[in-house]
Amino acid sequence: MSDYHLNEGVAVITLDHPPVNALALALRTRLGAALHAALRDVSVRAIVLAGAGRGFCGGGDITEFDLPAVCQEPTPATLFSLIENSPKPVVAALHGMALGGGLELALACHARVAEARTQVGLPEVHLGLVPGAGGTQRLPRLVGFELALNLIVQGRTQPAQSLRDSGLFDRLTDGSPVEAAVEVAMALAGELAVPNAADGMLRRTGALTPRLANAQAFFAFARATVQSRFRGLPAPVACVDCVEKAATLPFHEGLAFEHDCFTRLRGTAEFAGLRHAFLAERRAADIRGLPDGIKPRPVKTVAVIGAGTMGGGIAMSLANAGLAVTLIEREQEALDRGLAIIRQTCESALRKGRLTAEEAAGRLDLIKGCVGYDPVRQADLVIEAVFEDLEVKRQVFEQIDAVARAGTVLATNTSMLDLDRIAGFTRRPQDVLGLHFFSPAHVMKLLEVVRGAATAPDVLATAIALARRIGKTSVVSGVCEGFIGNRILQPYLYQAGRLLDEGALPHQVDQAIERWGMAMGPFRVSDLAGNDLGAGIRAQVMANRPELAFSGSFDAVVAMGRFGQKSGRGWYDYSASQRGPQPSMEVNAAVVAESGRLGLRRRTIADEEIIDRLLLALVNEGAKVLGDGIAQRASDIDVVYTAGYGFPRWRGGPMFAADRRGLADILGTMRRFAEAAPDPQDASFWQPAPLLRRLADRGRSFGTFVDSHLESEPS
């Protein structure tokens, strides 16, 4: 758990608790014992704290946050007070990462040395918390209030070298941070050894005097800005409150206020949802059925077929991670157009300061273009990103299969089509899988990895490793129409349309679900994606699932040429002179006309009903996806929706939200919707998924469900 050795009078204590040296109770206990031993040992003149393995310390152990261990001694606060008040110099040697409680540990030391690429930050706000071990009180004393507040409220993680002149670090190094920290520690010990040297020569962070002119105005502005940006979430505002106490209260009182905030927030629904989302993303990487020790195939060069919006975005995602990419098109004009958009995107990022000129040039150098399939011969991975048509896919995969060398991974970006049929277009179905990127591919974090019936284990492992390399959150899906995300989305859109038929208007539906927390309502999303593209998907869905006979309002909007944002007209009107989408009188009239055509008497629909019908449509279809074995676990569905579909992360995901509400209550609500439905088709829509009914009847939750192919459920 911790390693202790002496280096010329300096005790080097190494945190060793894989994978990220989280401050679990076991590690805290060992660290406390090592610190006390070093303080008692008269031969020890100074102490260096370092981390083993991947980094210094990744922070608190989130799995203990709802267990008694989180409050058991020695707590982080106890350890950090011991360090800060040590009569012997304590220096932190940082590498890899120093995040959350790991950075707070470093802040309590008398000096900090970091390898320049070390990632540092206080990301607790992303869990619905404030830093709980002195971060809001110590960081402002070192770097000033404006920078500290930005780092804490935004939860940013950044390299140490970007904070070179902030006052956070005493030394940055490109070499060994432990060696440099030992030098700093010996120098501090030497200063203390000077006759008549005062103990106060040690720079104790908590003893520093914070200075901020016009503190009242500064924090009033900061609080108003945060309240507006974070839409009522408690943690960001609490971060402002805590940092304000660093300016207005003695250090020990500020620590007490911070601890109280941390404890209060740990009991909120927001923390529960964010904690679930955090753990769910890590759980998604545990792929059932992969043999132990399976190794991914090497991927150094990639060919992307299709230079349109998706192909270009995929190419940028790969180049951003240092992979060489060749974009392939049938015609030079289409290729030139795709490469031009990539250049414009990089230039825009350069102007906005998101890339340096060197970074932009390096990424553009990694992306080449070619007309024809010759580059496929040398590619380790080929990703098809052409038009969503099975016949077009067949032609592409037959050509890829003819020229790609043995062992090349072949991937399709299809969002709806049958992966196993696509794999059957080749003589190597074991090498084929789905890589469903989300648009814009270089921005969106989600990557659905679709495992076909014949997909080889090392091909699946290759996709997971690639996702990690390019910074994507990956979820493995089985094969069905729409996989996890788009399959579940269709009933949601169906209900959105039926709400229009029964009496709602598009802006009312969107506003209700957005106030609940969704990033965008269904009709704003449709405008963004393109209503003409949605028409093709609906036709395909209804051909296979006739029970989802979508509202005629969808087709009416397309028939009016209202294709969405790209045409300036969709469910909403868009104008450069007006900020945001504006409700359309033309669309509203068409919605009312569709109700008349169906013989429905329009009624007032409350926001609560809108929210319930949309969300329970997601939950019920999610239960079918889970019961069918398309998703490995309920939390994988939650990851898909929080990472790719704008579901509020602080609510954890649709399946987690359902568990929090209670499956019995959900069944009761669905029963009421069925009884009030205007026709038999709508009533049958609310037939519960078998898994949902089974779990509810047994008082269980989605979170306790194991893959239906593996589970032996109690009677």
Describe the structure in brief:
This protein is α/β, with parallel strands linked by helices.
What would you say this structure looks like, in words?
This protein is α/β, with parallel strands linked by helices and 715 residues long. The protein folds into 3 domains: 2-265, 2-enoyl-CoA Hydratase, Chain A, domain 1, CATH 3.90.226.10; 301-477, Rossmann fold; 485-704, Orthogonal Bundle (N-(1-d-carboxylethyl)-l-norvaline Dehydrogenase, domain 2). 48% of the residues lie in helices and 12% in strands. It contains 28 helices and 19 strands. An 8-stranded mixed beta sheet has the order 12-11-10-13-14-15-16-17, with helices on both faces. A 6-stranded mixed beta sheet has the order 1-2-3-4-6-9, sandwiched between helices. It is globular, with a radius of gyration of 28 Å.
Layout: helices, strands, pairs:
Blueprint: E1 2-7, E2 10-15, H1 25-40, E3 46-51, H2 76-84, E4 90-94, E5 97-99, H3 101-108, E6 111-115, E7 119-121, H4 135-143, H5 145-154, E8 157-159, E9 171-173, H6 177-192, H7 215-229, H8 234-248, H9 251-265, H10 269-283, E10 301-305, H11 309-320, E11 324-329, H12 332-351, H13 357-366, E12 367-371, E13 381-384, H14 390-403, E14 409-412, H15 419-423, E15 432-437, E16 446-450, H16 457-469, E17 473-477, H17 485-502, H18 506-516, H19 522-529, H20 531-544, H21 552-559, E18 572-573, E19 582-583, H22 585-598, H23 607-627, H24 634-644, H25 654-661, H26 663-676, H27 680-685, H28 690-697
Parallel strand pairs: 2-3, 3-4, 4-6, 5-7, 6-9, 10-11, 10-13, 11-12, 13-14, 14-15, 16-17
Antiparallel strand pairs: 1-2, 7-8, 15-16, 18-19
Helix pairs in contact: 1-2, 2-3, 3-4, 4-5, 4-8, 5-8, 7-8, 8-9, 10-24, 11-12, 12-13, 17-23, 18-23, 21-22
